[in-house]
Amino acid sequence: MMHQWHDKVVIVTGGSSGLGRAIATAFARAGAKVVIAARGAEALAHASEAMRRDGLEVAAIGADVTRQESVDALFAETLKRFGRLDVLVNNVGRSMRSLAADTTPDDFQELMDLNLIGLVRCTRAALPHLLKSRGHLVNISSLAGKVAARYMGAYPATKSAVTAYTQQLRLELSPEGLHVLLVCPGPIARDGGPSAALAHARPEDLARMPASAREPGAGVKSRAIRPEKLASAIVAACARRRSELISPPYARLLLALMQLSPSLGDWIVRKVT
């Protein structure tokens, strides 16, 4: 796999922490030149310095995917430094905690701009270069993008949109040589600190939900996925040019049941969350 990724150029949005940093590290260890992009300058500098100490080739570029000029600058700087692009990982995004009835149109608009429209901005900027290199587009969705869960506000709707957009791209652009991978994971393990979903939640909204809603995945009864393990699976899925990666794999059974019987699927979702 080292030979396959040698001198390939990878951009990972939201690459300064969590799953994004793990994905960037996995590609870099496989031999790629990696660009990590994020809004937080301090976290970005810390992540890039740590990766360089490990002997990995990484560049850190500040970027806000909710601003078109910032996205344009990210791709212009990457092409200026490296002259090509082989992989874009649209990882940046945020979850949410709110009852559906309490989630306002403004809440939907804010999260949609980050989770979907930001991904569209980056994808459109990357496509000419990825088509030229017959490269890889990786969109990080969620199990919530396949089957909605309780107490997650606008999050399932935004990730469902990512899932649909990714399939459209796969149908239209795979014949032109682009590999499109949809990644739908369950809750990702975190190392300390409150999640962004809780940090952005309104106290009055949290008060109307059970305590389990504050847990990873809004209380889904599934072991949290280690980001390093998922990152390795993503690199391997790109090498094999797979269309979809579901984690944990047994979640495919629930997804199939939801298609066969929505009422049975709803019953199962209530049991496992």
List keywords for this structure.
single chain; 7 strands; globular; 273 residues; Rossmann fold; seven-stranded parallel β-sheet; 11 helices
Helices and strands in order:
Elements: H1 2-5, E1 9-13, H2 18-29, E2 33-38, H3 41-53, E3 58-62, H4 68-82, E4 87-90, H5 105-133, E5 136-140, H6 155-173, E6 179-185, H7 196-199, H8 203-207, H9 227-239, E7 244-247, H10 251-260, H11 262-272
Parallel strand pairs: 1-2, 1-4, 2-3, 4-5, 5-6, 6-7
Helix pairs in contact: 2-9, 4-5, 5-6, 10-11
Explain what you see:
By secondary structure, this protein is of the alpha/beta class. A 7-stranded parallel beta sheet has the order 3-2-1-4-5-6-7, with helices on both faces. It starts with a helix and ends with a helix. The chain is built from 11 helices and 7 strands. It has a single domain (2-272), classed as NAD(P)-binding Rossmann-like Domain (Rossmann fold, 3-Layer(aba) Sandwich), CATH 3.40.50.720. The mean pLDDT is 92. α3 (41-53) links the parallel β2 (33-38) and β3 (58-62). Helices cover 49% and strands 13% of the residues. It has helices spanning 2-5, 18-29, 41-53, 68-82, 105-133, 155-173, 196-199, 203-207, 227-239, 251-260, 262-272, and strands spanning 9-13, 33-38, 58-62, 87-90, 136-140, 179-185, 244-247.
